């Protein structure tokens, strides 16, 4: 047996003994709020992670991310700050390099916090699966890699971002600046409830239509008003007509806000829409159609403005992504972990990395379910095999003689 193979076996055996400590650490992370809209909570969570991940023995870079803007419920653009991006590098000059990425924000408000409890091998807690459980898998795998020198010449970087749950508006450009330097990516979103990994993903985007009319008294001079809610209602019907499920396009009007005192003609309404598409060409079509609708619903005392974009592109596998899937599946099988692949309509940051030219598998975290709800859970006994799969895959990749083909192509640009 070679020294490398013995180190790999020792790493797998060590990981298998860590479930209790990893589960306790994950519960502690879930007890700390890190909601996307709560920058102070995000900063506190970031420092907890910096302290706990110090076992890697690597310096951390706290990346200041830009503010981002969002249309509020009364039609005003509001600037939001966020927590830091966290970045660790190991052997940044190595021939073989892998980018490992996951977010540390959650959808949950700090008050009141959802109840945290353990039910058998499940941890029911905010962010337990999405995606603090993914950080637990990543941490455990890299701790074993370092401890046993499984792939000592492999370069890797860890990226933790604070805004994935809202589409990564502050992190997107940061991802773009990083993608070229790596062979492929590993993203630690939770596996699907049955343990399957995601294959292809739909594209996803959020848009807001701001409808502005003219206020007037509902009794004295209603004819002088322009009712923004009525105009918005007609707009909603036009938006709903854009659904084309035969071609995988859904246009979901998810929220409408507007109005005030009942004796006033409302002059502002905001219509919020989520779009999912399966065809990349549909991005330009839906953007064009939305702009046309904004123009059509302006005039005669109304103004309709459009805000938003497709924040997660369609993710379809090319031949390099398929090759990576095969390698990851082979690694899983070596640790006796059966893997299936399943397409999904959900979006994640893996879609952005793929659009930037970095092939990736993006559901390498633990198994879980009921995401974004008080019943969200992480299957604790899925953390160990997930971490063993990562160690196996990185060991195998480090032994390959050549860089990943897409990295060589990017470096020739």
From TrEMBL:
InterPro entries: Bact_exopeptidase_dim_dom, Peptidase_M20, Peptidase_M20_dimer, Peptidase_M20A. The keyword Metal-binding applies. Transmembrane segments: none annotated. Its EC number is 3.4.17.11. It is an enzyme of class 3 (hydrolase). One of its GO terms (molecular function) is metal ion binding. Residues 201-296 form the Peptidase M20 dimerisation domain. Keywords: Carboxypeptidase, Hydrolase, Metal-binding, Protease. Pfam families: M20_dimer, Peptidase_M20. This is Carboxypeptidase G2. It comes from Roseimaritima ulvae.
